[in-house]
Structures
1.
Amino acid sequence: MIGEDITQNLKTIPSIPQKLNRPLTVEVRGECYMPKDSFMRLNERREAEGQPVFANPRNAAAGSLRQLDSRVTADRKLSTFMYNVADFDPIDARTQSDMLLELTSLGFTTNPTNRVAESLDDVFAFITEYTGKRDDLPYGIDGIVIKVNSLPRQRALGATVKDPRWEIAYKFPPEEAQTIVRDIEWTVGRTGVVTPTAVMDPVQLAGTTVARASLHNPDYLVEKDIRVGDTVLLHKAGDIIPEISNFVAAKRDPNSAPYVIPTHCPSCGAELVHLDDEVALRCINPKCPAQLAEQLNHFASRNAMNIDGLGPRIIKQLFEKAYVTDVADLYRLTFDQLVTLDKFGEKSATNLLTAIDNSRDNSLERLLLGLGIRHVGAKAGRLLAAEFGDIDALMAADEESIAAIASVGDTIADSVVTYFENADVQTLIDELKTLGVNMTYTGAPAEPANADGFFNGKRVVLTGKLTQMSRPEATEWLEAQAPRSLAAFLKKRTC
Ligand SMILES: [Zn+2]
């Protein structure tokens, strides 16, 4: 009733029996995981195929279970441990440990490292033991669960609204690693924000090699007092993103001085500023090459104009050779220019020109996203494009009429109006029009105003006899209430 039905996928996991060793009706609970070696092989294969790799086995396992095609799940080499039953009555056991034995005898797989502890000292001894053995296990763990062994006592203790009173999890402290900061790099983003990144000697941390960690902004860097040459402690925030916890005071060179925050843009040399009360440091030079290159990257990216083959390496060269200074120049590139690029043959040049040419026909929302208007992401871009239909109508709109669109607030409205008031932007739009870039919305009609409505995210099944309207009428009415994805779903499912 809630969530996704993954029964077919679970049936492909070998550790789940297709048939119990004896007939019994029982609801079993457990956990599905991806063993470390399955995870490594999966990511190696994905990397070789040019597909994005999974951040960790947990994400990979979850993603594998939600496949529409069970064969994909089967191929992912998942495994399971069962650890509980919903109702003890059909099970011949009075303790947790006997229950696990019962589950095993029925054909399920249970975690073989479980152990009955006679005292709290035993519990702590187990924790110490597995803190040491943790990395040697064939699967990742983040802690140990301690349970009351007697099932009648479990039942007597019951549960609070949130948790059972008879079990508790011990969580390992986050993994840490030590390494040395060799440099602090400043990169200029698309909007001019200049961000520091610590560049470090590569070190293994919770399953990956880490050599860089963001220091977010100057305030953060000053507060942490990270210096070049420091030995630092690293951990992973949310088990994924490497972060510097602290420098190791005992290992700091006594002659080292606090890091000096740059005052000028590493790309164009313009003076850096703090806008309003922002912690971020910005380059506000509109001609800053680093910013322009990032804007072009964004313009060409998959969700925006989707220009295949126009990556950062090519864009860097286009700037160096002064073939482009803004996005309009992309549409003026010639074959003769492109073949002069490093490692760029005639075929690549033709393909890139075709990709650029195809992008002229994109629906307006892609252009809106590609322009990089502050606060206008893919969703807002689509709403604006669908509502106004073409760019002239959008440019002529006032804040009030933009903010009136559902889920487009004052912030976006203000940002859009400010953006199009800029004379340089108006010139750019005119140039793009002249160069044949489509300025109209060619996608599906506007989503209904009530995107947060009653039917949003719900599955609707029409069945039985309807008294007030025919089934096709009901379908049509539902589709009008529903966002596009649901409408498509309904179209497939109703009969
Ligand atoms: Zn700059």
2.
Amino acid sequence: MDAETATRILNAVDARFDAQVAFLAELTRFPSTRGNEQGAQEFMAAEMASRGYSVDRWQIDVDEIRALPGFSPVLGPYEDAVNVVGTRVGTSGKGRSLILNGHIDVVPEGPHEMWDSPPYAPRVDDGWMYGRGAGDMKAGLASNLFALDALAACGLAPAADVFVQSVVEEECTGNGALACLARGYKAEAALIPEPFAESLVTAQVGVLWFQVHLKGLPTHVAYAGTGANAIEAAIPLIAALHGLEDRWNGEEHRHPEFAHHHHPLNLNIGKIIGGDWSSSVPAWCVFDVRMGLFPGQDMAAAKAEIEAVLMEAARENAFLRNSLPEVVYHGFEAEGYALAEDDSATAKAAIGALEVAHNAVTGAALDRLAITATTDARFFGLYADTPALVYGPRAEAIHGFNERVELESMRRVTQATALFIAGWCGLELL
Ligand SMILES: [Zn+2]
């Protein structure tokens, strides 16, 4: 691509940027938490159709993906889990194909009174857009579409097939991205604009979710000594899990990409419920855990170790000893993934193309980042032999109150994405 074409593409992003910000606000208005993504997906499908892409919308069928590597178990039905993919077929067939992926689901916003303004009434202040999902990752979804729009505005199109994916389930299982693979969507590289401050993600941890179910012995609190408190029994079990977390984070266990990160694997007690009545010793307690894993760490071995730690702690408890906890797996069984370990020529070429694009927009070298969260990149990298580049805008307070995304950062990422598409796929006349 010559310098003049690159400049035309960058200017085309600028020319549409106000429309892109309006698009992001409209998309952020949808409270697309798990199970409530339909409106946002309808909007995405309509936007893709209006651009002339062929649109594929389908409900995820658990039976079609259950046996595939990377599947995460789910509780409850998938009647409301709908993926959307827009396809633009290249006519010249001379370039390299590309998946532009993003997730539409957002995490619950928490108590609204803790937000400075309502989470689904996006507002712009001092160059940032605030709203649940604005950063994670609706700005990325906007970037994918508007990068292609910029090419079209120049009378250009990718010289290969491009698939724009808007998937569900990223925040709890990844089964949306897995369902795209199962449906046959493949390309030579994937780009996922998750909000990691314009850095290229070289490694991501794995994530395992599980619930621990505890029983107790209910009595009137007047005779508490004769009962067994299921809620208080959880406390030493949680401490034992943190002990395992400390061990796994030990320097000798660390994956090389995380060698300089002092605590890459985080254990979180995300939820706890139990008991029925203030004056009754609680007969039950359930707590939900999220634990990180390193790339390459074996999932089955990790589960076995977690269960062993829990059972050992439970045997210290006079009641639990004879009524051991039950561990229920639901949600993430996500393996870690390290793009840095992909030494294929394709991966090198894709990273090289992104470096060139990033440098053309920012004038700076592309920073590398190992992240302590997971993304859908693992499906492409681990199960489809496709290098997955995670590269997106700067956002703050994702999963927190007053989540926000920096609009100038979204502009730069959109420009870099447009140049990346041009460099990776090549260009043909529209
Ligand atoms: Zn995300």
